């Protein structure tokens, strides 16, 4: 054994092995950077790493069997040891190893420094993070529950408008309503450093609001206060709580700007209470899926603006309601019997009022971006949303809308940083994850979305909406068998039957079972024979893109009615000359694919 090791050293096999490992590691690091830069698919990097790994034994074998001589490469057995120059070659290899180690060490230090800086930034960001738990209704009247929830939500919204605060979403915070869990456990689950909790008691001519800010790491109360006022002081209480919390967490806002950020937007208590009621009703629709409740929510918003006709946030709520009736691909779009033009006019009236009355110029950017999108000014909308997100970098809704707008042109590089930021923010909000998966997939970041889908499957195994999205993502990426494992879970859920048919159809097509997929398509169309969006998606899954687009052509839909379809990467806008002309005039190069990757491949015969 000793002689073998000496011979390995003499033939420079050991040095070649060390040099190969070090140079291989450096090459992988450089390759990783370059692969990201050139948007190389993940399989290229994996293949490259595999080839390097497989090359190691061959390099060592070559060093054992061959030798560099003054006359070139020869078999070692043919070289007399007295003429061997392995010692000289070994010295050169030593220099190569040392140089490679210096490069590797430099890269390691640089990367480590970057990670340290990222950790410091993440720690600083986490230190300014908070979740607002639902305030407890201490009133004798249980009907005041909506008031406590609404006040909680508006405090949350006010804090979320502070640019350098990370605020857990309403969905994340309200899952702990009525639960007596440890504060540190809640904070750890939501990924925040602080918790705001409180209670509300309202009766007669008195309103008592108690609030306390708790540091989760040690349970220390950073701030607490009890407001014992008249009900007319509710607006001042909400704004005061938000300002005190922002100051306690040492945000960078100056007092005047902070006051504007957390402003309720109205001086009328009656209008404010109607607005709080609308927020609660909207949230219940999102949680239950009972879209009919939107009518009650918009009625509360309308009551708010009838009391205060300058209440921008209430107009914003009305605008969102009417936008839901403009997009044929949105659930609940057919709730009212108005024509598309009438619904659009109501949307424009509401969004214009929101823009005109919003005193916060930064927040008005969001309203303007929203209007631009629905007026088919896609390029303007994306630019306005980017300007808004620059002012409000932690606004989840703004990020979602920006990514969704970018998805129309599938500009992956433009979307990538916002997708990365959104990935951090939406982790514990199933509703936001649901929208995020959809947007990121359609913008073209498939590998990233697969990773997110696998994560949420583990964390939310009973959440039908997320399983539905994840099933599509896995099929899109070609993980057919993995996707099939979700089908029984979805069939056992209370998910709408028509959507289950689409799931079964996707899986059948991915499995190559055209006959079964065709039957599921017929079943789905029978359920929604008057819904062109469901029929369109079904025909795309069936591998019939021409028929799918012709169906929309025959429906004689106008360009604005087709706006929601632009997010689908397989939507071919060239079938619609007026729509294509609108995009062309904006200089938008919108690529599209022939159909979803899992679509059936009908027999050409």
Can you give a write-up of this model?
The chain has 605 residues and is α/β, with parallel strands linked by helices. It contains 27 helices and eight strands. The protein has helices at residues 2-10, 13-37, 42-65, 86-127, 145-160, 170-174, 183-190, 234-248, 255-261, 269-288, 294-307, 312-323, 340-357, 361-374, 378-391, 396-407, 412-425, 430-443, 446-459, 464-476, 480-484, 487-491, 497-510, 514-527, 532-541, 545-554, 577-585; strands at residues 66-69, 72-75, 129-132, 136-137, 166-167, 194-203, 206-215, 220-229. Strand 1 and strand 2 (72-75) form a beta hairpin. Helix 16 runs antiparallel to helix 17 and helix 16 packs parallel to helix 18 (430-443). The longest helix is centred in the N-terminal third of the chain and has 42 residues, at 86-127. The radius of gyration is 30 Å and the shape is globular.
Quick tags:
globular; six-stranded mixed beta sheet; alpha/beta; two-stranded antiparallel ribbon; 27 helices
Short description:
The protein has 605 residues and is of the alpha/beta class.
Write the layout of secondary structure elements.
Layout: H1 2-10, H2 13-37, H3 42-65, E1 66-69, E2 72-75, H4 86-127, E3 129-132, E4 136-137, H5 145-160, E5 166-167, H6 170-174, H7 183-190, E6 194-203, E7 206-215, E8 220-229, H8 234-248, H9 255-261, H10 269-288, H11 294-307, H12 312-323, H13 340-357, H14 361-374, H15 378-391, H16 396-407, H17 412-425, H18 430-443, H19 446-459, H20 464-476, H21 480-484, H22 487-491, H23 497-510, H24 514-527, H25 532-541, H26 545-554, H27 577-585
Parallel strand pairs: 3-5, 3-6, 4-6
Antiparallel strand pairs: 1-2, 6-7, 7-8
Helix pairs in contact: 2-3, 2-4, 5-8, 5-10, 10-11, 11-12, 12-13, 13-14, 14-15, 15-16, 16-17, 16-18, 17-18, 18-19, 18-20, 19-20, 20-23, 23-24, 25-26
């Amino acid at each position: 054994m000793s002689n073998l090791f000496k011979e390995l050293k003499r033939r420079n096999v050991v040095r070649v092995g060390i040099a190969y490992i070090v140079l291989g590691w450096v090459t992988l690091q450089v390759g990783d950077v370059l692969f990201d830069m050139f948007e190389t698919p993940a399989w290229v990097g994996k293949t490259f790493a595999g080839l390097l790994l497989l090359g190691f034994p061959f390099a060592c074998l070559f060093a054992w069997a061959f030798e560099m001589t003054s006359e070139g490469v020869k078999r070692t057995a043919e070289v007399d040891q007295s003429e061997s120059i392995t010692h000289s070659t070994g010295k050169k290899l030593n220099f190569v190893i040392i140089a490679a180690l210096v490069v590797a060490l430099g890269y390691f230090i640089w990367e480590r420094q970057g990670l340290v800086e990222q950790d410091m930034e993440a720690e600083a960001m986490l230190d300014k993070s908070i979740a607002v738990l639902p305030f407890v209704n201490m009133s004798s009247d249980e009907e005041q529950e909506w008031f406590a929830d609404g006040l909680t939500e508006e405090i949350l919204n006010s804090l979320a408008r502070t640019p350098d605060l990370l605020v857990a979403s309403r969905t994340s915070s309200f899952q702990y309503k009525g639960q007596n869990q440890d504060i540190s456990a809640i904070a750890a689950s939501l990924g925040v450093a602080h918790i705001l909790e409180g209670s509300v008691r309202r009766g007669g001519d008195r309103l008592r609001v108690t609030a306390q800010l708790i540091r989760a790491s040690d349970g220390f109360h950073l701030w607490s206060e009890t407001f014992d006022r008249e009900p007319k002081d509710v607006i001042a209480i909400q704004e005061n709580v938000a300002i005190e919390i922002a100051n306690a967490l040492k945000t960078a806002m100056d007092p005047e700007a902070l006051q504007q950020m957390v402003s309720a937007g109205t001086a009328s208590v009656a209008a404010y209470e109607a607005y709080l009621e609308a927020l609660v009703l909207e949230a219940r629709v999102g949680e239950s899926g009972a879209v009919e409740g939107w009518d009650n929510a918009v009625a509360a918003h309308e009551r708010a603006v009838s009391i205060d006709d300058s209440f921008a946030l209430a107009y914003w709520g009305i605008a969102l309601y009417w936008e839901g009736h403009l997009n044929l691909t949105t659930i609940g779009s057919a709730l009212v019997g108005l024509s598309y033009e009438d619904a659009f006019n109501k949307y424009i009236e509401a969004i214009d009022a929101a823009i005109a009355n919003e005193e916060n110029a930064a927040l008005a950017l969001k309203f303007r971006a929203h209007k631009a999108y629905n007026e088919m000014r896609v390029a303007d909308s994306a630019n306005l949303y980017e300007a808004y997100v620059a002012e409000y970098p932690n606004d989840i809704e703004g990020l979602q809308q920006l990514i969704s707008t970018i998805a129309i042109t599938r500009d992956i590089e433009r979307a990538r940083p916002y997708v990365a930021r959104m990935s951090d923010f939406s982790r514990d909000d199933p509703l936001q994850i649901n929208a995020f998966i959809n947007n990121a997939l359609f913008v073209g970041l498939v590998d990233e979305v697969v990773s997110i889908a696998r994560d949420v499957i583990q964390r939310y195994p009973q959440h039908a909406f997320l399983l539905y999205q994840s099933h599509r993502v896995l099929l899109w990426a070609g993980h057919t068998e993995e996707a099939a494992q979700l089908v029984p879970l979805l069939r056992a859920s209370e998910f709408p039957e028509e959507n289950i048919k689409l799931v079964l159809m996707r899986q059948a097509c991915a499995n190559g079972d055209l006959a079964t997929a065709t039957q599921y398509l017929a079943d789905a169309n029978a359920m929604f024979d008057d819904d062109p969006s469901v029929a369109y998606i079904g025909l795309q899954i069936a591998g019939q893109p021409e028929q799918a687009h012709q169906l929309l052509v025959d429906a004689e839909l106008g360009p604005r009615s087709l706006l929601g379809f632009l997010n689908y990467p397989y939507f071919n806008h060239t079938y619609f000359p007026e729509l294509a002309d609108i995009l062309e005039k904006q200089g938008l190069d919108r690529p599209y694919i022939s159909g979803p990757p899992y679509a059936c491949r009908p027999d050409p015969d």
